[in-house]
Design goal:
9 helices, elongated, 4-stranded antiparallel beta sheet
C-alpha cells in the first residue's frame, strides 16, 4: 500500500495510490462525472478515466447512470462510491473489533466468550457444500481464506498434516488484546476444510497466524 493515510483499506487502491485515492475521495464527495472529477483535481479527463476504471474493477466505485447536459456528444457517465469504498477508507473497523472483543471478554465467562468467537468464525464466510478431499487441497483452501482476510501466508504439507503460517495477523488489533480471538479464524478454517484445526499462533503486540490442519 502506498498511502499510509488509508491503513484500513487498501490494497485495492493500488500502486498509484495517491492519485487513485484522490479520485475516489472526489467521487465519494459528490463529483459524479469524469469532467467534474478532472476539474476538481486539476488533471486530464483521460487520467481520471484510468483511475475510475481501476476503482470500478476493484469494486470501490460503480456507474450509477448517465446525464445529458445539452451539449453535443455522448452523455456523461455518473459514478458513485460503493459501500466497499467506505470500508476501505475507514480506520474504525480494527479499533471497533478490538474494543468489542475486549468488552465481551470482560462480560462473559471464558467458555461463553470462546463460544461466541467460534460461532462468529463459522459465520464469517459461508462454508462450502463439499469439503476438499486431500491435505494439499485443504491447505490451499485455508491459505486462500486467510489471504482473503488480508493475511500473507505460507503453506506447508508434511505427510497427512498441513499448516498455514502468516507474516502477520488480519485480526491483529483484537488478538493483541485478547489472544482467544484466534478462535474465530480457527473455526473458519475448520468449517471450510472439514478437519480439526489446531492454533499455534504467535501472540503479543504483533501477532502472527499459525494453524495446523490435522
Amino acid at each position: 500500500m502506498t498511502n499510509s493515510s488509508v491503513r484500513a483499506g487498501a490494497p485495492a487502491i493500488g500502486p498509484r495510490g495517491d492519485a487513485r485515492l484522490a479520485v475516489l475521495q472526489a467521487v465519494r464527495g459528490g463529483a459524479e462525472t469524469v469532467n467534474v472529477v478532472a476539474a476538481a483535481l486539476g488533471v486530464t479527463d483521460n487520467a481520471v478515466r484510468g483511475h475510475l476504471a481501476a476503482l470500478e474493477r476493484d469494486g470501490l466505485v460503480r456507474e450509477r447512470g448517465v446525464v445529458r447536459r445539452g451539449e453535443p456528444g455522448k452523455p456523461a457517465r455518473q459514478y458513485e462510491a460503493t459501500l466497499d469504498a467506505d470500508v476501505a477508507l475507514s480506520r474504525a473497523y480494527a479499533k471497533t473489533l478490538a474494543a468489542l472483543v475486549e468488552g465481551l471478554a470482560r462480560r462473559l465467562s471464558a467458555r461463553q466468550f470462546r463460544g461466541v468467537l467460534a460461532d462468529a468464525g463459522r459465520r464469517l464466510v459461508p462454508p462450502p457444500a463439499k469439503h476438499p478431499g486431500t491435505v494439499e487441497a485443504r491447505v490451499s483452501v485455508a491459505a486462500a481464506l486467510l489471504e482473503s482476510l488480508g493475511g500473507s501466508v505460507r503453506a506447508t504439507v508434511r505427510g497427512r498434516v498441513g499448516g498455514v503460517e502468516g507474516d502477520g495477523c488480519p485480526l491483529a488489533a483484537a488478538v493483541a488484546r485478547e489472544p482467544d480471538t484466534c478462535l474465530l479464524v480457527r473455526e473458519l478454517l475448520a468449517a471450510h476444510t472439514g478437519r480439526a484445526v489446531a492454533m499455534q499462533c504467535h501472540h503479543g503486540m504483533r501477532p502472527r497466524c499459525a494453524f495446523e490442519i490435522r
